[in-house]
């Protein structure tokens, strides 16, 4: 397996804030409320960050 190199300058700030919010508040709902965005928007940000990094960041169930 090759190690993927990521240029951190290209990571979306909103996606990083969304992930930080989930880590800090412990749930997508609480993080969305704290960031004043919808839960679906927060989920999309985290999913985008996962796709960019190639790393699963949350253990939330996913739709196929």
Q: What structural class results from the helix and strand content? A: mainly alpha
Task: Give the number of helices.
Answer: 3
The stretches of 5 or more residues where confidence is low (pLDDT under 50) are none
Helix percentage range: 55-70%
Mean pLDDT, all residues: 86
End-to-end Cα distance = 24 Å
- Sheet having the most strands: none
Count of distinct strands: 0
Shape: elongated
The string of secondary-structure elements, in order, is HHH
Tell me the β content.
Answer: under 5%
What's the Cα radius of gyration?
A: 12 Å
Task: Give an overview in words.
The chain is built from 3 helices and no strands. With 64 residues, it is mostly helical. It has helices spanning 13-25, 28-35, 39-53.
Break the fold down into its secondary structure elements and pairings:
Layout: H1 13-25, H2 28-35, H3 39-53
Helix pairs in contact: 1-2, 1-3, 2-3
């Amino acid at each position: 397996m090759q190690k993927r190199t990521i240029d951190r300058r290209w990571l979306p700030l909103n996606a990083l804030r969304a992930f930080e919010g989930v880590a800090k508040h412990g749930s997508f709902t609480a993080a969305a409320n704290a960031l004043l965005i919808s839960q679906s928007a927060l989920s999309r940000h985290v999913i985008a960050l996962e796709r960019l990094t190639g790393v699963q960041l949350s253990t939330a169930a996913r739709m196929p």
